[in-house]
Amino acid sequence: MASVGPSAASTQPALPSGPAVFKTIPYAFILPEILCGTWVWILVAATSVSLPLLQGWVMYVSLTSCLISLLLLLSYLLGFHRNSENWKVLDSLYHGATAILYMSAAVLQANATINSEFGTNGPLNYQLNSAASFFAFLTTFLYILHAFSIYYQ
């Protein structure tokens, strides 16, 4: 029987488990995504929400994304993926969809920031909204980076 070379499945890089998640691109982006998304939620919650429909969407996207990303991070840390290639597809689809949702939230938060510039609530509300807009766009960038870097592994 002739020896056969390595199969295509064994040439794929293994999905990280445990602490290796924090050292492997794109999985190392998950923790900064969670932290920046948490800042978005905290900063919007600290403002006097003048546009509840706009900022309600921002709060929904940031809180939901933080929770799902946290579950995804825990599943990688605990090795639930069992090195299945389907997890790469799930990860890419989740981060791509979340990047789109976060972009919409970031634009709505920027609009809320513009509207709060001359509001009656003072400069603190504007500064909190500005910081929330910054972190919303930063989080969007992290999700986009994560979604696309899966393809370049």
UniProtKB/TrEMBL annotation:
It is a multi-pass membrane protein. Residues 21-153 form the MARVEL domain. The chain crosses the membrane at residues 27-51, 57-80, 92-112, 132-152. One of its GO terms (biological process) is myelination. Its main location: membrane. PROSITE patterns: MARVEL. InterPro entries: MAL, Marvel, MARVEL-CKLF_proteins. It is found in: Membrane. Keywords: Membrane, Transmembrane, Transmembrane helix. The keyword 4Fe-4S does not apply. One of its GO terms (cellular component) is membrane. GO terms for molecular function: structural constituent of myelin sheath. This is MALL protein. It comes from Mohoua ochrocephala.
